[in-house]
Amino acid sequence: MSAPLRFGILGTARIAEKIAPAIQATPGAQLVAIASRDADRAAEWAQRHGVERSYGDYQDLLDDDDIDAVYIPLPPSLHAEWTIRAAERGKHVLCEKPLADSVAAAQQMEAACRQHGVLLMDGVMWLHHPRATEMQAVIRSGALGQLRRITAAFTFQGTWIKPDDLRYRPELGGGSLLDLGWYCVGAALWATGQRPERVQGWGRFVDGVDRSFSAQMWFPNDVIASFDCGFETVTRKWFEIAGTERSLICDDFTRPWTESKARYWIHDQNGKAAEHVSPVANQEQCLIAEFCRLVREPVPTYEWARLSVMTQRICEALLESARSGTALPSARNEAADGG
Fold first, then answer.
1. Residues 25 and 50 placed together within one structural domain of the fold
2. Which residues contact 70 (CB under 8 A, 6 or more apart)?
3. What is the pLDDT along the chain (339 residues), one digit of tens a residue?
4. Count of domains in the chain?
5. Is 243 inside a domain boundary?
6. Are residues 234 and 148 in the same domain?
7. Are both 111 and 147 inside the same structural domain?
8. pTM of the model
């Protein structure tokens, strides 16, 4: 058997509380170290999670030769700096979404990882769950007919968000589109296998940050996708993918309401619905397992990095559209992220 892939985590953000046990529970993965800008906080976190090493500086963790890969749950504005530094030290990078706070930063991250021959993947988990594989197979099989509409929503009531939370700070890469809409844009790319030709966005901005956002995206072959996201509505995390013959509906695509029952429905044009239940899986562990598998592949892959950069490009075009009040091409320089 291959030696375990040894992980370090840069930062003690709340999402690290989910990823740390997933690394520890995934065969072939090992959590070795945690770093924080506060050495005491890192030491306390390491003790609480059974992690052997802690560092009071992110660079000290990157300089540890016993670490093969890093997970980066830092604010989006810091993703580029620490991904590039990790790549320069030969570490594979699992980076929280959004990949960055701008397309330019995302491209720099992808280029650095490619240059140093390391894997770059963002932390969107649902794509690695068996349910996503099953649903995509349904779409690709033609069972829905010709694809026509994709509609999605990802919202929650953010009354708990504090004014200084990164979600409300534009300089840290905040806003509902990058935090929540990232999933909806990604779902449309996943369903169509294409990039949109034109996009238009509408947002409610407060202090420079979109608290809620709606968007429409026009794809080739007469496919239209629309979504809404935001911090001001009850929790919703669903999509419908509709064709000329059937539609596929998932009411919890970003994370199953109940881990033991990851489900979706196929509706026909006569009102009959068939429920499908996928194998039970922990999607955090699915993400870690796929990351480890790709690291061990003999030929490096940059498919996931390209998808992340494309998602970033579309989100940036949507924000520009919302601020200008006009529809825009989704990519003005297609060659920059591999087409």
1. yes
2. 7, 8, 9, 10, 61, 62, 82, 86, 91, 92, 93, 94
3. 579 999 999 999 999 999 999 999 999 999 999 999 999 999 999 999 999 999 999 999 999 999 999 999 999 999 999 999 999 999 999 999 999 999 999 999 999 999 999 999 999 999 999 999 999 999 999 999 999 999 999 999 999 999 999 999 999 999 999 999 999 999 999 999 999 999 999 999 999 999 999 999 999 999 999 999 999 999 999 999 999 999 999 999 999 999 999 999 999 999 999 999 999 999 999 999 999 999 999 988 999 999 999 999 999 999 999 999 988 888 654 544 544
4. 2
5. yes
6. yes
7. no
8. 0.95
Tell me the residue type at 91: K
Q: Which residues pair with 221 in a beta bridge?
A: none
Tell me the residue range of the domain where 80 lies: 5-124
Q: Does residue 302 belong to any structural domain of this protein?
A: no
**Cross-strand partners of 219:** 223
- Whether 112 and 208 map to the same domain: the answer is no
CA-based diameter of the chain, in Å? 62
Measure the CA–CA gap between 250 and 269, rounded to whole angstroms: 17
Do 93 and 238 lie in one domain? The reply is no
CB atoms within 10 A of CB 267: 16
Residues labelled catalytic: 97
Q: Are residues 119 and 218 in the same domain?
A: no
Domain check: are 53 and 96 in the same one? yes
Strand partners, 94: 71, 121
